[in-house]
Amino acid sequence: MKFRHSLLARYLSIIAVALLLWPFVIPVYYIPSLFLDEDLKLRANYIDTNKLEQMWHKEALKLDKANKEKIDKRLHALEKKYPKAEMFWVDPSGETKLSIGNPSIPERWNQEKTIQFMKNSAGSGPYTILEYIGGDPSQGFMVFQIPSALTKPLSANFIDDKYFMVYGIVVFALFLGISWLFFSKIRKRLVKLQNAMTTVGERGIPEKVKVRKLDEIGQLGQAFNHMIDDLNNSRKREHEEESLRKQLIANISHDLRTPLTAIRGHAHTIQKENLSPKGKESLLLIENKVDMLSMLLDNLLSFTLLSAGKYPMQKSKTDVHRVLRTSVASWYPIFEKDGFNVNIHLLEKTTYWDIDPHWFTRILDNLFQNIIRHAKSGKYVGIHSEEKDGELIIRIEDNGPGLDGESNEKGAGIGLSIVELMLKEMDLAWDIDSKAEGTTIYLYEKNSLVY
Fold first, then answer.
1. Residues 393 and 404 sit within 8 Å (Cβ to Cβ)
2. pLDDT digit string (tens) for 265-293?
3. What does the pLDDT look like over 61-82, one tens digit per residue?
4. Counting beta carbons within 10 angstroms of the beta carbon of residue 447, is it exposed (0 to 12), middle (13 to 18) or buried (19 or more)?
5. C-alpha span between 208 and 232 (Å, rounded)
6. Cβ neighbours of residue 254 under 8 Å, at least 6 residues apart?
7. H-helix or E-strand containing 35?
8. Are 33 and 159 in contact (CB under 8 A)?
9. In this structure, how many other beta carbons lie within 10 angstroms of the beta carbon of residue 239?
10. Do domains 48-151 and 314-445 have the same CATH topology?
11. Cα–Cα separations (whole angstroms), residue 273 to 90, 266, 267, 280, 318
């Protein structure tokens, strides 16, 4: 991205324009004061004392050999240009002939009065300019006086501050207004980008944003759009891979059933033959492993169908205790055969859950099968139903090594994954308390209190 297209370059331009405008505030401060204030315009004529001295000197030379009428006429003309000045002239005899501005001067001059006048004009007195008429002392002299305050330069002390305040505020307000507009547009674009990032589309991924400018925010928008493209491509690949994986698992599960059926049939045929004790033991082991492999295939196929949402479910008001008793009755001989101490305590009451009875039976089968495979060392299984705050809780416990313990039959945990998916689909919940001394599993409805 080029620097001139960046937000930094734009804001630096705003600051540069503000700095360039600021020096114009000072001239604008003085110009209205000089041209709009009549009093200041008059005072501007008295600031340059050198100019005043040159003017008075030239006027005195022009009046060389002039008579009284000409001198009076010229002084009255100067009065219009310098209304704040006091002017008078004295003839060679020392008599005051004309006094403009009512100066306190004697009518006749002598040495004493002249010295006193000069003393009064010195120091903090009025600014005084004295010139001999025609440059000749024998023709008399002429005097120009103004208050000394009028000779001081124009400054903020003598000019109304309202002009400076007005124009200063205008420039400052202009800078703030442009800055606010600049940052409000940035904020609007950032909020729009934030909303796009937090708003999820139909596919669970935010929608892309339109990029109109190639500044920093525009580049962020482009990066966001690139990320959305990557997410869409990744999601598409994930769906394709998931479909392929599920199809592959379904095909493998189906294809393996045929050889397993054949193996089971041949094993049953061999049982009719005369076998040695070792042969019978091997045949029994083969049958057990075939059954286990068949169960694993069923679980794998069921998990695939469940995760794809294709496993049929028909929920209805079902007596949980009836399903539980039926399942326990079918597993009781298996537990006894493997030497388990079975402790069963079920409430003598009817409790209805909105579930699929076949799904719930499959859940119990997987949990009981897990105990047979992984908790055989504990030789204990407990199946209880109890009420807590009016809600039914089913408790299944064993004395095995726990879920983290070592087991020769330990697999990938597909059976428990199926249990979790089925419980979730039927709006049921479960808790697992697994320790080295054993595992306890609680089953309950989601709207009930967690055990």
1. no
2. 777 788 777 878 888 788 878 877 777 77
3. 999 999 999 999 999 999 888 8
4. exposed
5. 11
6. 301
7. helix 25-36
8. yes
9. 11
10. no
11. 165, 11, 10, 10, 47
Distance separating alpha carbons of residues 76 and 81, to the nearest angstrom: 9
Interacting residues of 415 by C-beta distance below 8 A, sequence separation 6+: 299, 366, 369, 370
Q: Residues with Cβ < 8 Å from 295, sequence gap 6 or more?
A: 369
CATH architecture of 314-445: 2-Layer Sandwich (3.30)
Q: Report residue 156's pLDDT band, with 50, 70 and 90 as the boundaries.
A: very low
User: Residue 270 corresponds to which tokens in the numbers above?
Assistant: 């061999």
Amino acid at 151: T
Tell me the two tokens of residue 431.
């808790």
Is a pLDDT exceeding 50 seen at residue 34? no
Would the pTM of this model clear 0.70, i.e. be above it? Answer: no
> Nearest-CA neighbor of 154 among 34, 51, 32?
34
Tokens 């299984």 locate to 381
Domain ranges in the chain are: 3-37+159-192, 48-151, 314-445
Residues 6+ apart with CB under 8 A from 335: 342, 368, 372, 381
Q: What is the DSSP string of 380-400?
A: EEEEEEEEETTEEEEEEEE-S
Partnered with residue 430 across adjacent β-strands are: 443
What tokens does 180 get? 């606010």
Cβ proximity of 265 and 294 under 8 Å? no
Other CB atoms closer than 10 Å to residue 39's CB: what's the count?
9
Q: How many CB atoms lie within 10 A of CB 7?
A: 16
Q: How far apart are CA 369 and CA 357, in angstroms?
A: 18
Q: Is 131 within 8 Å of 60 (Cβ atoms)?
A: yes
Tens-digit pLDDT profile for residues 350-368: 999 999 998 899 899 889 9
Whether 393 and 430 have beta carbons less than 8 Å apart is answered as no
| Amino acid identity at 232 | N
**Cα 32 to Cα 262: distance, rounded to the nearest angstrom:** 112
Q: What is the CATH number of domain 48-151?
A: 3.30.450
d(CA 182, CA 187): 9
